[in-house]
Write a structure and sequence with these properties.
Blueprint lengths: L2 H5 L12 H6 L2 H9 L1 H7 L4 H9 L18 H14 L2 H5 L1 H11 L5 H12 L3 E4 L14 E5 L2 E8 L10 E7 L5 E7 L5 E4 L14 E8 L1 E6 L7 H30 L16 H36 L4 H32 L16 H10 L5 H14 L11 E2 L2 E2 L1
Parallel strand pairs: 1-4
Antiparallel strand pairs: 2-3, 3-7, 4-5, 5-8, 6-7, 9-10
Helix pairs in contact: 3-6, 6-10, 6-11, 8-10, 10-11, 10-12, 10-13, 11-12, 12-13, 12-14
């Protein structure tokens, strides 16, 4: 059983909602199975096809689909709580599903249309969606070399993407590119359709099993009409950052659980130690308590951030006046920036100091304890946190609104 099961969240605080435990009970047995193979997958760099399959069979990807439309109707705090539990089992999994939950979030909150009806049905059935947005190379910030163009009676897609996280495991890929008039737009293509190739060439030292590599599109056929990205959910940046925070929270909890278990089982001690066994050594126990406390604080920040994103969702779907909805989206961006800045440091500390409670044998590759720091460092390198403190400071001092798009590329001769 997981730590969340046995302690009933006692170590981590109050669950996100009164219905959370009933919702989580559907998936915790799957999380436990995923946890059992996490270290072996890490050591062997075995992509988690089977684990993703278990989640797909349980329709984990339908969490945000309303119950009346065949889903589970989870709130955003519920979703991010479950992603944290999944990350506690294996942090590669929520990262691999990040593009899926983003596509689902945009679809669930969209106004009624044939497009929404079509994709809601696929989400409710358990289909998984990957994403292909970022391009490497000399592209200018805010532009895409990938083209969305007319192809016969429909639309085609041609180009190359990187950081296509989760697309190797997906049924569909949500791709952003340049339309025929140069506008930024998006289409969905079958992940295994003609003209689509997804390559496992991600070589990061962390989150190694997320399939975050290259996707190639050669006149791939799109399903339906292109969708202008400007009409997609306005709190998208805050939402995607919240997924990272949930994943980081799960990493901290996994680190806390593993260091406690390792100390409990350890018999060897040192001549200059303060106890006959590590489990009775007050200095060792202090380290374990510190890692747990860091994980607790991360979870509290994660929940607070999730509530900010929930308010932004409600602003989108309840028809608030544009100015009021915009103010709520600004608040969500600022809250998520603050949360990222602090939570990231907590989790990186947890992944580092856990080794102070253990001996050199803990660095053995068979334990894979280094994965917690590596994975946290990799996730926290996305959307760099150094810029977030400046954004928050500029807002606090000058009232400058935060940027609502994170784009990467070159400006003139200066790479960004």
């Amino acid at each position: 059983m997981s730590q969340s099961d046995t302690a009933a969240w006692a170590a981590w605080g109050t669950p996100p909602s009164p219905r959370y435990d009933a919702l989580a009970a559907r998936f915790r047995p799957i999380f436990a199975r995923i946890r059992e193979g996490a270290v072996a997958r890490e050591r062997e760099r075995e992509l988690p096809y089977e684990a993703i399959g278990w989640l797909k069979e349980a329709r984990f990807g339908a969490l945000r689909v309303p119950e009346a439309e065949g889903g589970f109707g989870a709130s955003l705090p519920d979703l991010f709580g479950l992603l944290a539990e999944l990350a506690e089992a294996d942090s590669n999994l929520p990262q691999a599903l990040r593009n899926h939950v983003g596509f689902a979030e945009d679809t669930v909150g969209s106004p009624a249309s044939p497009r929404r009806t079509h994709w809601i049905a696929r989400l409710a059935a358990g289909d998984l969606f990957g994403g292909a947005w970022t391009e490497t190379g000399p592209a200018t910030v805010g532009s895409f070399a990938t083209r969305i163009h007319r192809s016969g009676e429909g639309w085609g897609l041609t180009g190359q993407k990187y950081y296509t996280t989760g697309s190797l495991f997906a049924d569909w890929i949500d791709v952003v590119g340049s339309g025929e008039a140069g506008e930024e737009t998006s289409v969905v293509v079958p992940a295994r359709g003609p003209g689509v190739e997804v390559i496992d060439d991600w070589d990061g030292f962390g989150q190694r099993l997320t399939a975050s590599g290259t996707a190639l599109f050669d006149n791939a056929s799109a399903v339906g009409e292109p969708l202008r990205t400007e009409v997609r959910f306005p709190y998208g940046p805050a939402f995607f950052q919240a997924v990272h925070l949930a994943t980081l929270t799960g990493i901290a909890r996994a680190a806390a659980g593993e260091v406690a278990r390792a100390v409990r089982e350890r018999n060897r001690t040192y001549s200059h130690a303060a106890g006959a066994r590590p489990s009775a050594d007050p200095q060792v126990l202090q380290v374990v308590g510190r890692v747990h406390s860091l994980a607790y604080a991360a979870g509290a920040i994660n929940l607070q951030a999730a509530q900010a994103v929930q308010r932004a969702y409600e602003a989108r779907v309840t028809g608030l006046a544009e100015a009021e909805a915009h103010a709520i989206n600004v608040a969500a961006e600022i809250e998520l920036a603050q949360a990222q800045s602090v939570l990231t440091g907590l989790v990186l500390d947890a992944g580092t100091i856990l080794f102070d409670a253990l001996g050199a044998s803990a660095t053995s590759r068979r334990h894979a304890l280094d994965r917690h720091w590596r994975n946290a460092r990799t996730i926290s390198s996305h959307n760099p946190r150094i810029f977030k403190d400046r954004v928050v400071g500029d807002y606090a001092v000058n009232g400058t609104q935060p940027p609502f798009q994170w784009k990467i590329g070159q400006v003139g001769s200066t790479a960004i």
